[in-house]
Amino acid sequence: MLSVEQFLDLRQTHHASLFDALSHPWEALSRLNAYILDYLEHQPARESSYQGAYVGEQVAIGKDVVIEPGAMIQGPAVIGDRCQIRHNATLRANVIVGDGCVVGSACELKQCLLFNEVAVSHMNYVGDSILGFQAHLGAGAKLSNYKWNGESVVIRSDHDPKCSIQTGLNKFGAIVGNQVEVGCNAVICPGSLIGPRSVIYPNTLWRGVLPEDRVVKHLTTQQIVDKRIPGQVEPGGRAST
What we know:
Elements: H1 4-7, H2 32-41, E1 54-55, E2 59-61, E3 66-67, E4 72-73, E5 77-79, E6 84-85, E7 90-91, E8 95-97, E9 102-105, E10 108-114, E11 119-122, E12 125-131, E13 136-137, E14 142-143, E15 154-156, E16 164-166, E17 174-176, E18 181-182, E19 187-188, E20 192-194, E21 199-200, E22 205-206, E23 209-210, E24 215-216, E25 233-234, E26 238-239
Parallel strand pairs: 1-4, 2-5, 3-6, 4-7, 5-8, 6-9, 7-10, 8-10, 9-11, 10-12, 11-13, 12-14, 12-17, 13-18, 14-19, 17-20, 18-21, 19-22, 20-23, 21-24
Antiparallel strand pairs: 15-16, 25-26
């Protein structure tokens, strides 16, 4: 139940060994620091400089990567080929970004793994999370990684009342499966898992386990009324105020 292969295509990352012998995908988060440090030891010295951007010493950068002025990559971090790290993006400690990814303006990444072709393009927060192949976060979407009471995160599912898995992690955001679409300004609560190809509507607050190929709709009721203009006489002879 809730296996790595259920959510992630390991053919779409150069770092599949992170998941060796794991029962659940979130267990890889605890391995990130040691894995990245070992990876960096076997990489050649970085020769390129990126004008106007801050790139820490413990950072490996692939080919044809664009890092715009104002970006900050603190490290330890690994950036794949053909990525865009845009203006004012911040990559904190223990971040792996796959090939062909976009990390956009005002986005913040921390303790996370992005598979190939992931797009977090505008004002996103991704903390203690894993995003599968071609996952996409709409503008302003957030992956919350910390419970208000500081307790360790438990996986629960409305679709399976028997599902209650103690992760042992005080910080764990989400597992976002392959080709998932998360709408603008959605908030994904700690300990959530979203199945491949599912869609989260804009402005949705989601918590729990969502199976593959589902759509979560956030429906609101809107009311349209006439605009009141001060001094205008309304029906019945009464002036609006």
